[in-house]
Write a structure and sequence with these properties.
mainly alpha; 72% helix; Arp2/3 complex 21 kDa subunit ARPC3
Length: 207
């Protein structure tokens, strides 16, 4: 879902950069040093998942795993996604440096929203965790598609059709992402539950 260089107008690029910078600042402030290795692993997973992509007009379609990143990392998903996007732009020319701010918002802010929602539900069973993770994993992709479409639309009427196509193309991807997120979250809950903020909250309530 990378938006390419030379597509967005400067007001959108500048606004995206400012908002992304604020999000990265907050994410770094909230990042516990003990969770840096975990954050690096999730950033690596995001980096690899985005390598296989299908061009769609001025953007592209690929797996994101941003819902899972939001669930596991919370606010730290914003700097983690930024680092992955920088490496993709420098190594593979995916997206670009001038659109880093907008692309970070597109992928990280829906992830953060899903992570915050995930922490609000005191589910106990792996089945409940998997169900919630499926919904949030799907919602994260759709949210990213809508934000990308909004950025394209704000940059000119010529991109309206491309924005619609982008959203439609990510409908099946959202289902796949939901399944992957559900399986991963359920597995983590069973094997190493302390990774999930939801489990920590539920455990604290029992204490």
């Amino acid at each position: 879902m990378h938006i390419s260089e030379g597509v967005l107008n400067w007001p959108v690029l500048a606004g995206g950069a400012a908002i992304a910078a604020l999000g990265v600042y907050v994410g770094l402030k909230k990042l516990d040093t003990a969770r840096i290795p975990q954050t690096a692993i999730m950033a690596s997973a995001f980096f690899v998942a985005s390598l296989i992509h299908v061009p769609i007009g001025p953007a592209s379609m690929h797996l994101l795993l941003n819902g899972l990143m939001g669930i596991v990392l919370g606010w730290a998903c914003i700097p983690a996604i930024l680092v992955a996007l920088v490496l993709q732009a420098l190594l593979f020319q995916f997206g670009g440096l001038t659109v880093l701010g907008v692309n970070t918002i597109i992928m990280a802010f829906p992830a953060l929203a899903c992570g915050l929602v995930f922490q609000c539900f005191p589910n106990r069973s792996p089945r409940q965790v998997a169900g919630l993770a499926f919904i949030l994993g799907s919602a994260a992709v759709l949210g990213s598609a809508l934000l990308a479409a909004a950025a394209l639309t704000l940059s000119g009427q010529a991109f309206i059709n491309a924005a619609r196509l982008l959203v439609l193309a990510h409908l099946p991807v959202s289902g796949i992402e939901g399944i992957i997120t559900a399986v991963a979250a359920s597995f983590i809950y069973r094997i190493k539950p302390e990774i999930l903020p939801l489990r920590e909250r539920a455990h604290a309530q029992n204490i």
